[in-house]
Amino acid sequence: MKASGGCYCGDIRYQIDGPAEAAFQCHCRECQYFSGGEPATAMAFDEGDVIFTRGNLATFARSDLENPVPRYFCPRCGTHIGNYSPRRPDLMILKVGTLDDPSVFRPQLAIFLCDAQPFHHVEDGLPAFQKRP
Length: 133
Ligand SMILES: [Zn+2]
Ligand SMILES: [Zn+2]
What we know:
The protein is mainly beta and 133 residues long. It is 5% helix and 39% strand. The protein contains one helix and ten strands, in the order βββαβββββββ. It has a seven-stranded mixed beta sheet with strand order 6-7-8-9-4-3-10. Strands 1-2-5 form a three-stranded antiparallel beta sheet, with no helix packed on it. Bound molecules: zinc ion (ZN) (2 copies).
C-alpha cells in the first residue's frame, strides 16, 4: 500500500510504500495507556517501507522491564506514532490513527484479550487470542 501520515500537530510526517505485514488490534494493558483506553489499532510494515519525511521522533522505553517496547512520539504534541516490537525488530508498527486516512484499516486479528476491558469490541469472526497466535 501507499499511504501517508503524521502526528496531530504536523511536525512528524511519514510515508509508507509497501504491504502491511499485519493489521491488528491489541487489547493489552500497556496499549490502553496509549490509546486512551480502547485497544490499540496498528499496522506493521517492513522498516524500510516507512520513511519519515519530517520531524524527529522522541523515544521512550521503560527501564524496569526486561524486553521493553521502544515507543515513538512527537516531542511537541505527544502523538504516539508507533513502536518497534523487540520480537520483530525488522518491523515498524504504526498506530492507525496517525494515518491520513485511517479508514483503510481492516483488523486481521485481535491479541492480548487476557487484558481486555468489558467495553472493548471484537468484531464477529475476527480471530482473537488471549495472548499472541
Ligand atoms: Zn506533533
Ligand atoms: Zn498492546
